[in-house]
What we know:
Helix content is 52%, strand content 13%. By secondary structure, the protein is an alpha+beta fold. Helix 1 (9-47) packs across helix 3 (73-96) and helix 8 (188-203) packs across helix 10 (238-250).
Amino acid sequence: MEPHRHTDPDAAAEAVTSTDCTAQATDRAQAWAAARGRMLAHAYRMLGSWQDAEDVVQEAWLRMADADGVRNPDAFLTTTVTRLAIDRLRQRQRRQEDYIGPWIAEPVASDRLPEDAAIDRDLLSLAAIQLLERLSPPERATYVLRTGFAYSFKDIGVVIDHTESACRQLFRRASARLGADARFDADPTTHGRLLDALLHAARHGAMRELETLLAHDAVLWADGGGKVSSALKPIHGPAKIARFMVGVTRETDAIRVVDINGLPALEIHPDGITRLISLRVRDGRIEELLVAGNPDKLGAT
């Protein structure tokens, strides 16, 4: 007969606590692995900067790892990422006041974008991200949570600390600011065809052919940020844009099509400095050209 063994209740409690903590840590790590891609996509839509998105998502993970009683990791991460992004947007607004020339969101190489099946990659095109720059931080958060996560206005209110009715109003205002521009073609084949035609016409100086590719109200934005030579004001109209494209393509043979934000784009080096040209397309014509040249914004390409 074995002697009776006395169990130390404090040691037993510590063992249970240790086991629970290990299980919670494992659950959080698994939740993090499952949510990371969506959180990066969300943060990028919020911020228009891949580097900032990675920083914000990492900070959200660290906060979740240190938090107690996280019952819904996905909701915790979404809320934390959104709030951190709003803070960064407000800080950036002050920097943008002194920015030289137009501000364009940072392009991202397509192979960096998350492959999560739940992510609508059309929402990550540079044209889509650029449109969001029109919105205030609360409007942007409301619009992104509504269109990207299908959050109810009540749930959005919890995330951004607004009432449900205020979130409805924010969404209406955001939709009005984006207007008809929010409807555009994000088909890679269409973009590739237009880029090929644009490049061919520009390199041959075919002005009329170039102009037919552009919408009557087309506009070109060039972001050099004071770091490289660039147009300091938007260029409006097919004729002026055509002249610009002929000029930049004739200055270099270093031109190639690259995959940016899920769509074909042009990489050119007219003065030995990289510039990326992305399109916004609707009804088979180019409505907007986004020329990213600020080297500080090309780190994710």
